Fold this protein.
Amino acid sequence: MKFRFLLFSLLVAFSTISCLDNMQKANANTAEASEGTESETNADSDFKYWTWITADASRTDESYTEEFKKYKENGLDAVLINTDTDPELLSRLTPLAKAEGLEVHAWIMAVNRPGDKVALQHPEWYQVSRNGESCFDHRPYVDYYQWLCPTREESRNHILSLVEGLAKVKDVETVHLDYIRFPDIFLPIGLLPKYDLEQTTEMPEYDFCYCDVCIAKFKEMHHKDPRDTDDPQIDMEWKQFRLNRIRDLVNDAYKIVHENNKELSAAVFPYPEMADHMVRQRWDKWDIDYVLPMIYNNFYNEELDWIGFATKQGVQDLEAKNTELHTGIYIPEMTPEDLTEAINQAKANGAKGVSFFDGGAFTKEKLEAVKAASEE
Ligand SMILES: [Zn+2]
């Protein structure tokens, strides 16, 4: 309980920062109810509208049905539900969303697993920084940064078993990987002032994973130790090694969900080279059905047209792949007009849909903007 309280406090304290990926939000699912309207026509039925939401087991079925109905009436097609990796809760909510005509996607915090009761019994499963400190007890940036090693067999199997549990839930469309990367070696520029940080080089306390297993496996492949160099950031094999560990985890997750007749999706950084630079994530090289890049312009001090730029970059980078790109949009700081423009930027630059972070941030006016866009 104490930990939960601490986590809650941190979530409130870092409410903006906590959306680096799609962190569960303490105030999720409290969207204002909108006046229901009748129209069911959806003119651009090929363009999909999604929203991320965080579930709360204490809420009633009726309140969920009301929330799902509200989304459907306003043009949304799909919900990505964070149940804190609880297949039972997901099994309860999926038929409720389906009954209202929504697709359901099982959202999991994959490599960063705050408060994971099984993992916490195995301190050696956690990532280790270049300073030699483990995420188990030395968390970079914030207390909820509790990253598991993607190389070590036991920790990666743990993550994959959780993916499998969600993939087995009836009627789920995809398992949706979030935090499928390394900790931020560079934070988004718009967030740095909140931490009173300057990051012009790769700093050892934010550089992962230097655990025994990662080092041994790298040595076996490349006959050198990244700890022996003064400047590991220019060692391309070491960078590639880590990109490939995340890729391998994703590709294994892809096999597992497909064996269960489901598909795989992920929340990723804005475009592949930026993701590579900031979090060692190269999503254009993965086996994956859908990517939802979090093109959160305000995190990067960018304007709305940057949503179009980043969308187009990702779409071009995926040209040779069978992966659909749906643009992730961060709505709390947007006006309804901004939201309309953001949707237009995504559409005009080749996205197959847009996903909103998050459901709790929808006002009546913002939902109306989505509805109007969906009927165009
Ligand atoms: Zn490791």
